[in-house]
């Protein structure tokens, strides 16, 4: 994917410096914005994606729309938890303060933020993201985005740009309490304005039995997979315990691994 890094117009030296650093990290060419429109940059450099470093954060301009970090439903879900309501993901994970979670499919980090809020300061949430641009933008957002009340939960999440297939294989048995997957492949392309640019940037591969076996080895307590209710993936992967809201189209497959973490 041909990607260019630039800034907002009239960036100032701090934004230009940040853009140059990101260009070096990705790596991708940096283009000084000057008075050029994004469209002009796109045509001149034949770029599919332009990442603009702005005062509000990073924005990836893609053919499918703009992709930028925002906590999405995380704030509302956390508010509901505070008000004593259930969260199906939290229940499926059996999540409690102090637990460790490996979110193998970080995406925008919404589920990881909720997990980080529940596991709290003594807990640990690590988010893996295979797509470089998604890992960059979500990682940057989790470090810098200002929310109304859940900044601490964002800041505690460790982001790793890695493919779970390789990452899981390198982890000791039982090294996380919960290993979580929310893969892309079930989502229809035009389902929502947020998903369309994500789908273009994301790793769209399916969850395989081999990766699931590694997850079962790594999870001290549970492996949880988010899916659509009538998906055939649960049967395909041999998962029998499926939970979720009665009227929700989303549900969670659970594999109890029955071990405890190495550190327990
Ligand atoms: C549906 S999104 C996850 C959304 C996330 N649960 C949230 O709350 O925002 C799936 C993400 O997993 C990533 N992904 C897919 N396969 C992966 C792999 N093998 N390793 C790491 N990340 C992967 C995709 O790039 C995509 O960003």
Structure notes:
- The chain is of the alpha/beta class.
- The protein has 2 domains: 3-55; 74-256, Vaccinia Virus protein VP39 (Rossmann fold).
- Helix content is 35%, strand content 22%.
- It has helices spanning 12-25, 38-45, 74-82, 88-93, 110-119, 132-144, 151-155, 164-169, 195-201, 209-218, 233-237, and strands spanning 3-7, 49-54, 57-62, 65-68, 100-103, 124-128, 158-160, 176-181, 219-228, 241-243, 250-256.
- The strands form 2 sheets. The chain has a 7-stranded mixed β-sheet, sandwiched between helices.
- The longest helix has 14 residues, at 12-25.
- The model has no long low-confidence stretch (mean pLDDT 93).
- Bound molecules: S-adenosylmethionine.
- The site of S-adenosylmethionine has 21 residues, from helix 5 and helix 8.
- Keywords: Methyltransferase, Transferase.
- GO terms for molecular function: rRNA (guanine-N2-)-methyltransferase activity.
- Pfam families: SAM_MT.
- This is Putative SAM-dependent methyltransferase.
Architecture blueprint of SSEs:
Elements: E1 3-7, H1 12-25, H2 38-45, E2 49-54, E3 57-62, E4 65-68, H3 74-82, H4 88-93, E5 100-103, H5 110-119, E6 124-128, H6 132-144, H7 151-155, E7 158-160, H8 164-169, E8 176-181, H9 195-201, H10 209-218, E9 219-228, H11 233-237, E10 241-243, E11 250-256
Parallel strand pairs: 1-2, 5-6, 5-8, 6-7, 8-9
Antiparallel strand pairs: 2-3, 3-4, 9-11, 10-11
Helix pairs in contact: 3-5
Bound molecules: S-adenosylmethionine.
Residues 104-105, 107-111, 128-131, 134, 163-165, 182-184, 202-203, 205 line the site of S-adenosylmethionine.
